[in-house]
Design goal:
Length: about 180
Amino acid sequence: MIIIGITGTLGAGKGEVVSILKNKGFTHFSAREFIIKELHKRNLEINRDNTTLVANELRKTHSSRYIIEQLYDQAISQGRNAVIESVRTPGEIDFLKSQTKGLFYLLAVDADQKVRYERIVGRKSDLDKVSFEKFVSDEEREMVSSDQTKQSISECMSRADAVIRNDGDLVDLKHQVEQFLIQKR
């Protein structure tokens, strides 16, 4: 059993990478879905500010790796290759590496900022109804933090086993994911 963690910038195509991996037999575990369930429990509006707020609160209350621990436990109980989307803190990476004894790989996904914004507008998710300025502000807030309970995407990406540039089409993306799998198996 291998576990692939997915990290990356907003709208880079992490979900598309997950779809490709699911087609390769990986079971998907989503931090976003986990947090949205928590938002429902708290009767909070589903938007990026609330998901970030609740995720950071859960990490502060429990541990910097709490969300990923919950998803990891679900993945282990399935006993199959798994993809965990999305890894947001260095503590989550440390936890996954310590638990999987070499069978964990972190894959980062990135793309041009304007391309990513166009993608999120196009998917019309409740989390993505934002202006370009808000998109940039959200990304800046999530990129760097010295607080281990808050997102630090840039550090997570710097610790990735590989970075996929998703500036092309789906064929190119699929090829890059397949090359990553070949190298890691």
